């Protein structure tokens, strides 16, 4: 069978990332990895989940837990999420919330809902590589979103027109972004809403790391600011994507979209067609664990991750050569390094693995156009402080030898 001949044209954009393939090879025990942006399993609320699954399978919820359920998601979980949204200044009802299988599924659905081939998606340079992967299947072109407001609506419109295209949405990872660790400040969020209004487009607000703030003042979500402007969530243009992956456990695959009701109705139809609903038992277990101790769990992981972040930032001060700069995140899991012009993160990764046994993600993978090869992403979520110090010391040796 000549499979390439039968695959739909959209599948040509679905490519294994060379970086992911390379990183798969890295689970040898002597490698210090700052590559994977994933939670530390030692911090999972394992006992709480053991208890929740036992309760769910032995109590009155037993039949429901193993049965098909509604596409919108488990009602008590949607109620709990609506309560959390309220605390962030997002007044909404459960009709504004759809449970998804991780926020990754929400990104796929929003791409499917909004993008026709050759439509323009505005993304920051760099952006979350998984968002590019989700949107790519719907064959968009990308243009560079200047989240600081340095480009006018007319410029975006003209660039799209040059490509016979139309701007369809802006996507932003707002708090402690993947990959940079940076947070869009309140004026930046307001300017983005102004731009969205001028271009009459939705804003996809990726809030995957929203709860992981270790210091500094919390900034209202774009959706909260949008509600402030328009008076009611059903009149807003912001599509908020939340996740339990970074706070409770990614393996259960539970996330959500919070948005105007007409969008949720359409996404519900999409979910019915795609997978009917997210795992019932996982939603019940997440609800039980979250409603009993979400804040405590967030406090626990914040203590651990903020110590690791501090450790990584101090080690960078000590070991990095002149000409290397990095972000100082107030939360999340990532620090972003910019190296002198002409240096290449991918080449350095190969050398780093060979000579220093330290792994990271080369930055170009996060650019829609593959540019800015002189960057790299380091994650501090998985290594302990001793390992972080040693890994950054070795990375410093490598960079000093360039
Ligand atoms: N958005 C961002 C910015 C992420 O970093 C991730 C996970 N790496 C996701 C979305 C997807 O997470 P999940 O599907 O587990 O909710």
Automatic annotation (TrEMBL):
Keywords: Aminotransferase, Pyridoxal phosphate, Transferase. The keyword Transit peptide does not apply. One of its GO terms (molecular function) is transaminase activity. InterPro entries: Aminotransferase_I/II_large (IPR004839), Class-I_PLP-dep_aminotransf (IPR050859), PyrdxlP-dep_Trfase (IPR015424), PyrdxlP-dep_Trfase_major (IPR015421), PyrdxlP-dep_Trfase_small (IPR015422). This is PLP-dependent aminotransferase family protein. It comes from the Bacteria. Residues 62-395 form the Aminotransferase class I/classII large domain. The keyword Flavoprotein does not apply. Its cofactor is pyridoxal 5'-phosphate. SUPFAM superfamilies: PLP-dependent transferases.
């Amino acid at each position: 069978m000549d499979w390439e001949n039968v695959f739909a044209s959209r599948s040509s954009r679905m490519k294994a990332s060379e970086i992911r393939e390379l990183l798969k090879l890295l689970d040898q025990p002597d490698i210090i990895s700052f590559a994977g942006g994933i939670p530390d399993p030692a911090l999972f609320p394992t006992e709480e989940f053991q208890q929740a699954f036992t309760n769910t399978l032995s109590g009155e919820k037993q039949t429901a837990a193993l049965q098909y359920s509604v596409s919108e998601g488990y009602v008590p979980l949607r109620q709990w999420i609506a309560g959390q949204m309220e605390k962030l200044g997002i007044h909404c009802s459960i009709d504004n919330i759809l449970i998804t299988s991780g926020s990754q599924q929400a990104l796929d659905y929003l791409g499917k809902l909004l993008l026709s081939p050759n439509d323009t998606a505005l993304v920051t340079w760099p952006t979350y590589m998984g968002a590019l992967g989700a949107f790519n299947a719907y064959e968009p072109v990308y243009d560079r979103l200047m989240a600081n407001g340095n480009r006018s609506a007319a410029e975006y419109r003209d660039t799209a027109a040059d490509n016979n295209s139309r701007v369809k949405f802006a996507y932003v990872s707002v708090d402690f972004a993947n990959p940079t660790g940076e947070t869009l400040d309140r004026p930046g969020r307001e300017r983005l809403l102004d731009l969205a209004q001028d271009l009459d487009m939705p804003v996809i607000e990726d809030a995957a790391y929203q709860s992981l703030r270790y210091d500094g003042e919390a900034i209202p979500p774009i959706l909260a600011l949008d509600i402030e402007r328009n008076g009611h969530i059903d009149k807003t243009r912001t599509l908020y994507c939340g996740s339990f992956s970074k706070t409770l456990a990614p393996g259960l695959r539970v996330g959500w979209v919070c948005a105007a009701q007409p969008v949720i109705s359409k996404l519900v139809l999409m979910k019915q067609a795609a997978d009917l609903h997210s795992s019932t038992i996982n939603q019940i277990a997440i609800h039980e664990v979250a409603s009993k101790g979400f804040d405590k769990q967030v406090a626990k992981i914040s203590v651990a991750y903020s110590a690791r972040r501090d450790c990584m930032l101090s080690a960078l001060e000590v070991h990095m050569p002149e000409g290397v700069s990095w972000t100082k995140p107030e939360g999340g899991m990532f620090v972003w390094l910019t190296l002198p012009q002409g240096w290449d993160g991918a080449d350095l990764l190969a050398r780093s693995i060979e000579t220093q046994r330290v792994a990271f993600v080369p930055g170009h993978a996060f650019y829609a156009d593959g540019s800015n090869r002189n960057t790299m992403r380091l994650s501090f979520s998985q290594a302990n402080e001793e390992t972080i110090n040693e890994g950054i010391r070795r990375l410093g040796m490598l960079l000093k030898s360039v």
